Backbone:
């Protein structure tokens, strides 16, 4: 349908206004991160703020913890989800429906309903303030989502391909890793990207489980850092930039996976 | 089990249990058991250290009667307006207004509009704290246009603190809704609108008869994501206001944390968590029921 030039322009104007509003806070942080804290100091871009945040602000250490946590959560939950999703999606066994619905309900349970009791029980076992306490609850939650996600993929995977593999003498294990997983790269990538984002941005679980500064994840370290300083300082903004950077960069490269995953996985 | 056997895919296999074992183990240990323990804790009075004493439903009574705890749920409902109602309404209106155009360059706008969804909430909170500062950009703009009377320390203001936090939720959600609805609209055949127009339908009828029904699925997704985000708000309040000034911006999640670890009321905290979980369940199921009914 032909629309007038004016209408087209108006549409772009609306989109542009909302785009500017969406990026403004991000640009504000970036601008503050590159600004000079000392009044009267010269120069334009102060990249040394990032180095200061990395060392003095200890963001280097926080980011390292976050990377370890993210690798463990993404790795373990992906493995468990692929295995469970394969069984739920391609095999028939007693209790499969009930078990699957229990996991589906688990997706809706918020961390708030787990983490208090878990904290006190893990304290009994001397496990609070360890990587296990930070990682495992997140592995469990992400595995619930991942099982749901991978089951959908395996259900939709081509039966003929599986049959052909079977005729070639491939067992269920070989069929999974040699054929179905390589074919399911898009579905897997979306899941990995989502779980990574959730884990990287997670706040409540590390807040409760990590009492030691050395175990603080990046968002947690940032929150404590801002508690000590007034906002609007270059160092705080530089820290905030470092914390957001990994997710934002990944998003710019894999935005389709982010958007598709969040929309289709909205049950979470 | 007849249903499962009839509908379940693939062939019968015992080995399936081995495949699901790791997932079930970790899920049981770190979701089911803690959930059951949470429900159990909610029936006791315990400060987290000494001996616990049976409290029956006393903690639940407190959740519904104590002004501060009840207030947290009221604040959460206010946040639903800012996180969900405003973004969805805004997104629908804009998508409808733009429905006639096939726009180029949508890919770029989609990336930018969706960006607030992926940034860590703590970073979002820090950015907006700076915007709301007494001498921050928002007050600067107000003073610049001569509205000095409106300038204030937004997050310290008893009336404006909660809406200020809410606006951040609006910022996070609006792009998502717009992206979703524009994508949904692009699937509606243009001819439908042309036919409606030939029949003399005005923009309002067009919206009710074509736009709204075809966006039913997207609406359910947008509402699910935004309502859940509103009810689960924690990071934003923790970093921006710590529930203050006074208790003006406390939310259920914040009170769960506050009661369990700062006030030593573990029973109350877990009862709150149980009520919050039920609220989330009801909201999710209700939204998706409405979404499904529309599709039939």
Residues:
């Amino acid at each position: 349908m032909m629309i007038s030039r004016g209408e087209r322009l108006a549409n772009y104007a609306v989109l542009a206004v909302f785009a500017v509003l969406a990026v403004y806070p991000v640009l504000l942080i970036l601008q503050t991160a590159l600004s000079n804290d000392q009044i009267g100091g010269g120069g334009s871009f102060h990249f040394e703020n990032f180095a200061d945040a990395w060392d003095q602000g200890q963001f280097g250490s926080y980011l390292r913890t976050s990377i370890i946590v993210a690798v463990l959560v993404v790795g373990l939950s992906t493995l468990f989800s692929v295995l469970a999703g394969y069984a739920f999606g391609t095999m028939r066994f007693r209790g499969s429906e009930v078990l699957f619905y229990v996991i589906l309900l688990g997706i809706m349970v918020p961390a708030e309903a787990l983490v208090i009791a878990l904290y006190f029980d893990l304290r009994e076992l001397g496990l609070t303030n360890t990587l296990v306490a930070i990682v495992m609850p997140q592995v469990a939650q992400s595995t619930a989502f991942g099982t749901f996600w991978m089951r959908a993929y395996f259900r939709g995977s081509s039966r003929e391909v599986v049959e052909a593999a079977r005729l070639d003498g491939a067992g269920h294990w070989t069929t999974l890793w040699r054929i179905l997983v390589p074919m399911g790269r898009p579905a897997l990538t979306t899941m990995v990207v989502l779980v990574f984002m959730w884990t990287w941005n997670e706040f409540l679980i590390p807040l409760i489980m990590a009492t030691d500064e050395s175990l603080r994840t990046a968002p947690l370290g940032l929150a404590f850092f801002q508690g000590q300083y007034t906002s609007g300082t270059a160092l705080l903004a530089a820290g905030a930039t470092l914390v957001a950077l990994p997710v934002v960069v990944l998003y710019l490269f894999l935005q389709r996976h982010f958007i598709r995953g969040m929309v289709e996985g909205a049950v979470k | 089990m007849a249903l499962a056997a009839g509908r379940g895919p693939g062939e019968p296999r015992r080995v399936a249990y081995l495949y699901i074992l790791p997932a079930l183990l970790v899920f049981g240990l770190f979701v089911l058991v803690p959930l059951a323990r949470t429900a159990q804790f909610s029936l006791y009075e315990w400060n987290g250290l000494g001996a616990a004493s049976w409290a029956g439903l006393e903690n639940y009574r407190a959740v519904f009667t104590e002004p501060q705890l009840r207030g947290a749920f009221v604040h959460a409902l206010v946040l639903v307006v800012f996180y969900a109602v405003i973004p969805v309404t805004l997104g629908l209106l804009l998508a409808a207004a733009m429905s006639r155009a096939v726009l180029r360059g949508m890919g770029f706008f989609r990336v930018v509009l969706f960006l607030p969804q992926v940034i860590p909430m703590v970073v979002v909170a820090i950015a907006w704290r700076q915007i709301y500062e007494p001498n921050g950009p928002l007050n600067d703009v107000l003073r610049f246009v001569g509205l000095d009377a409106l300038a204030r320390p937004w997050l310290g203001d008893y009336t404006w603190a909660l809406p200020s936090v809410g606006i951040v939720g609006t910022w996070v959600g609006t792009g998502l809704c717009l992206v979703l609805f524009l994508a949904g609209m692009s699937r509606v055949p243009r001819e439908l609108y042309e036919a409606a127009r030939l029949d003399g339908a005005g923009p309002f009828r067009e919206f009710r008869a074509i736009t709204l029904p075809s966006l039913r699925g997207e609406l359910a997704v947008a509402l699910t994501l935004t309502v859940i985000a509103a009810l689960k708000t924690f990071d934003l309040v923790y970093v921006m206001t710590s529930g203050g000034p006074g208790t003006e911006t406390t939310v259920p999640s914040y009170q769960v944390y506050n009661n369990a670890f700062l006030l030593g009321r573990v029973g109350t905290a877990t009862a709150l968590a149980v009520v919050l979980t039920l609220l989330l369940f009801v909201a999710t199921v209700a939204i998706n029921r409405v979404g499904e009914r529309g599709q039939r």
Observations:
- Chain A touches chain B through 94 residues (CB under 8 Å).
